[in-house]
Amino acid sequence: MTKPHNIASFLLRFTQELWQDTQGEPHVRWRGHIRHVQGNGEERFTDFADAVSFMQRYLTQLTIDTLSGPEELSQEKIFEESFKMWEQFASSYAKMMSQAMEQSVRQSEAFREQMDEAGKRVMDAWRLPFHAGEPGLAETLQQLQAQVEALSQKVEALEQQLRSKE
To answer: Which burial class, exposed, middle or buried, applies to 34 when counting CB atoms under 10 A from its CB (0-12, 13-18, 19+)?
Structure first.
């Protein structure tokens, strides 16, 4: 006689956050949300091991409920088969997380390159046209520099006057 199938479904959602710290270093963080579909239990996590633990709790309970049913089943065989799945998952977990991290690094590098390119385009748009031998531009820049220096001297003199009045 065929036994009824027990079903455990989980919905996983991952959100990637990209940011730069105060030194301008890029960072990537993954946040997750897992929900048990049949029981509506859910948790948020930043460490994928917490999601695995969440699934293990539900699957262990499902196995225990199956073993305590009215029909006699080989408990040893059921546990053995259930734990095979976790062994397979655990062996692929490190590879999966490594691939996710590599993808994050590639996305972070692509994001940085896009930001660098956008910054370059902005700077190019504001760049003054300068051609060697262009009449008047060098003189105009020298005049502007002289005006800035004169203004700086005036501001410094005003600050000294204010300090002397105090």
So the answer is: buried
